[in-house]
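User: Hey, my collaborator sent me this sequence without any context and asked if I could get a structure. I don't really work with proteins. Can you help?
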Amino acid sequence: MSMYLGRQWQHATAQTSATHRTVLQVIQRDEGLGHKIIMDNYFTSPVLFDDLFQRKINACGTVCHDRRGMPRDIGPKSPKMKRGDIATRVRGIPRTVCWKNRQDVYILTNMHAPPVEGYFTDESGQAIKPRVVDSSAYMGFVGKLDRMVNSYGIAHGTWKWTKKQFFHPTDMTIMNAFLIHKSCGGKMTHKNFHEVLVRELIIHSHEENVTASGISRGRPNPFTPI
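Assistant: No problem. I've predicted the 3D structure and written it out in structure-token form, which is a compact way to encode the shape of the chain:
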């Protein structure tokens, strides 16, 4: 996790934007390990993907067609594509893929072989999704996780952001515990898991308070004169 602090990247250049430097900061401990990163178009750029590849990190994600370094011969101003069309451009390591479904989908990757260009639909006329687009769909799990965490989150909407930031790791810890519970065959729902957790914490806290109170009072000294 890296918190955005406004002007912390005031020296960022056109080649290394604030989002670019944020990604590099977050992945410092993972360089050279061959990890795969899926990101959305807020972070994705050809310059960043070149940088990540040099650090032996694979990446894939949706990208804005007008981002610096993107090929200009595919996009809204290029010859109109029909549903099912796939266009591919390769510049060094990053590959840019444009897939036409209901709308244009732009993908940037440095870990997939470029898909074959052409027109691909199934028997019912539906566009066949290339593999690289399926990989970027993992971003959906991030959105699902956020929704699940926010369903029973501790932070209150009126709290100051510092309090929300303090409790967010707790929400994430509870979510991870719930996922482990499910992976071990647990049958509780997300809501029931929270209820049981809160109840057990209250009971544990009460027992701790009783024990602490007993220790603080102690037994009367038998040699104390009455």
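In plain terms: The helical segments are 18-26, 46-54, 131-136, 139-151, 161-183, 190-217. You can pass these tokens on to your collaborator as they are.
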